[in-house]
Here is the input.
Amino acid sequence: MESSSFREDWVALDKLLFGCVLLLLCWGIACIFSAASGFAGHGMEYALRQIGWGVVACAACVAVFAIGYPKFMDMAYPIYGLTLLLLALMTLAAPAVKGAQRWISLGVVRIQPSEFAKISLILLLSKFLSRYPPLTLKTFLAGWGVGLPVILLLLGQPDLGSALVYLFIMLCVIFVAGAPLRYLFSMAGLGLSLLPFAWFFLRDYQKMRLLVFLDPTRDPLGAGYNALQSRIAVGSGSFGGKGFLQGLQSKLRFLPEPHTDFIFSVYAEEFGFWGTTLLLVIFGIVFMRIVAAGMKSRDVRGKLLVSGVAAWIWFQMFENIGMSMGLMPITGITLPFLSYGGSSLVAVSIALGLVGSVYVSSAKRYRQL
Amino acid sequence: MPEIRDLLDSRLKVLMYAIFATLGILFTGLYFFQIVHADRYVRLAYNNRLRLIRFSPPRGEIYDRNGVPLAINETTFSIMGYPLDLDGQGMLTRVSELLMEYGIPMSVEDLERTIKKQRWAPYRVIRLVPNLTMAQMAELVADPEFPKQLFPLPEWRRIYPAGPLAANLTGYVGEISESELRNSLPGEYIGGDLVGKGGVERYYEDRLRGAAGEEAIEVDARGRKVRTVDLRSSEKGESVRLTVDMGAQKLAMELLGDYRGAVVAMDVKTGAVVVLASSPAYDNNPLAWGVSAREWREITEDQNRPMLDRSIAGVYPPASTFKAIVALAALEEGVVTPETTFVCTGALRLPSRTFRCWRRSGHGSVNLTSALQHSCDVYFYQVGMKLGIDRLLKWVRKFGLGDSTGIDLPGEAGGNIAGPEWKKRRVKENWYQGDTLNYSIGQGFLLLTPLQIARVYAAIANGGRLVTPFVVASESRKPVDMGVLPEKLAVVQRGLNNVVTRGTGSRAGRFGVSIAGKTGTAQNSHGLDHAVFVGYAPADNPQYVAVAMVEAGEHGSSVASPIVGEVLAYILSHPVDESGNQEKFAGRKETDNQGEYQKYVAQ
Here is the structure.
């Protein structure tokens, strides 16, 4: 009966959510084309590669959707164990290329395992916290404890940006799981009081980025320059934008990494305020539909899973767009669905496949009841 | 547990509100920058007045083992400018006319081509005219017509004092090519940078090149500097000292004369290369300054292929020099003893074919020592038959043949040890006994580089340790012990000793040092035979090994052996000058080309 149940699932699919996501993806490809045409006309090359990744991402999403999230929940612990093992091997074995060991090379494609590890963390937390709700201090701390190894491994790589995303995902999932607010506030207070000590663990370039965030004139050629030029790009878009492919800031190479980290700046410069507002509205619909899937679900695991995926996209979107305006420090976190990069696109699509599966499983009757 | 689900739903709602709150913050921010302050940012974007200058660092120098300079830098001047300033109406015509007036032939098209090649970003500086002298530059700057948007920048030009004598070894520098640029790490190079294109210059590029400096300046609307925004000094590259002795290298090049060929000499215990000569040679100086397409074609399409480093990339049949390996293999495998004799009647008759000795009248009764001494082919046919190709190949591989030696230079060839498998694959034929016989006297499909031959004889001379040859003094690697018995090696050494004292290589011994070695005459189907001689000295306490490969030199005994003798005698009488020169290798130094540059900009 597999095929007929898949057909039922397909009918019940949240078309609005996936429609919005597809729109974002296409928009992203257009921006990548525009951004990459700046460096010696590689626009088509990058756009085609991103289209290829988009096809892979859609296939992965449909596959995960067809399998259904309960099967992944059953495997949550082994998947998490495997993820830890992989990240540990990378940290130990990979040669330090420019100080960060974030990539695994598979012939022609390079994979960034830390993107996929986000899914594994969300699955783990959903399963663990539904079994042991963080209502008591013991289970609350245990919830943080299970996720800690992956964060430590990422800090060891060192990938501070991803570690922040993970930390935020954990915070949101534990919050939604019903952790008492006094625990959360104490935790936040403790974290803030420890913050000055974290300074000593930062690399020089990370310290520089933070200092520059506070004072952009500190390093006008380096990180401060990027922040300033990005804000100029966004601001000079004004209401109507300069038009597709007409952005000067990205074409004249004032913007670094215009096709990945600063894709939003390219978009904002070329499409202006109306374009950025539209983008925020579409992201808003995406978040609404993701949370709606959780509200509809009668499975606690599903609710937690959905909150994890929402937190992931939320944090990256806010940090990336904030960074483009100079409201947030520069971290190298990409904008989901729009930034160039296969690993992040495929990973977030798999996560959406899981969300879609949570949505349809609540739409159907519970057969086992 | 319905109550927990309710709690979760209320928390999900809070999450939703929080997300919308942050979307509101982003919206407000965008409104602030794109609507409220839009005018300011639009103006900033169009008036982006930042300019970047890159100071190329002086490369590290290259010296021979006595501190003789092989690659050094000379200060020259370049005229620099920014695409943003050059795009203006008639600017290039003006510049071209001015240059012509001072005898620098640069047409508008030339200038356009130069700009196009280096253009990366409009605010990134471009080298418009390179390689000007101080006098030329002073004249140009003094002219009132000289556009204020252009400025002079002192730069470094590479000079190779030894020129063709060591061109294959030092290599040369040239402008980075597009494919090299693509394969480099981001930010490592930019268009117009000089990179090593061959020899030591290329192999030690990372060490020699240093780190580029950069200055960001703000300019006014007419392109004149207002202030320095940021400044990073350049760092000079690390200098390297080679193991090569230029005196010996020069001697070897002179001895090779008009012949095509190569001479290699190295320390038998460490593998430190003292001579690496390849003839004919080319002058690397013009290549470093940039040659025209026609001049480049003349060098690369020369029939004699001067850019082929014959010492490490030329492959030749080792001929009779190979017999030392066969002799050692036979002793080690127990196929013969030093006393075993064969009778040479001038040929070995097999049912299929007759295999001749080079001496038609024959050598009579020969043992291993005398067979080496007289280079008797029949003795080695017999030994080869007894040994068989598999055991022979085992020893060939033990000597590291079939692979490149791992010398610290680019473009080394590995040669070809051409066993039965290779023949099946390439010639599509089975391996016959006749092939083994030919193989045993170093002919047939076997091909080695002169460096590989030198390495084999270094191992024979130093007691059976395989060295890894190297040319940069700090790059010595530990030799690998092959595990051969000293008494067996001594038999081979005695044979090689006799070659020079009373055999085919006697001409090598006329230069005042005792030499042991082996002659060879490599059959050449395209013309006259190649002559080869390899020897080490002093014979009783070997220190250096040398090989001379002379294309179309006909006989190893007459042409190649005196070269080896003279080169070895020179090396032994000119030990390394350890005193002095240390300050040249003090490592990276801050350079002051920014200071010099400031002087000129201040005008």
Remarks:
- The interface with chain A takes residues 4-5, 7-9, 11-16, 19-20, 22-23, 26-27, 29-31, 33-35, 37-42, 44-46, 48, 120-124, 185, 214, 216, 229-230 of chain B (CB under 8 Å).
- The longest strand of chain B covers residues 69-81.
- Chain B has a mean pLDDT of 85.
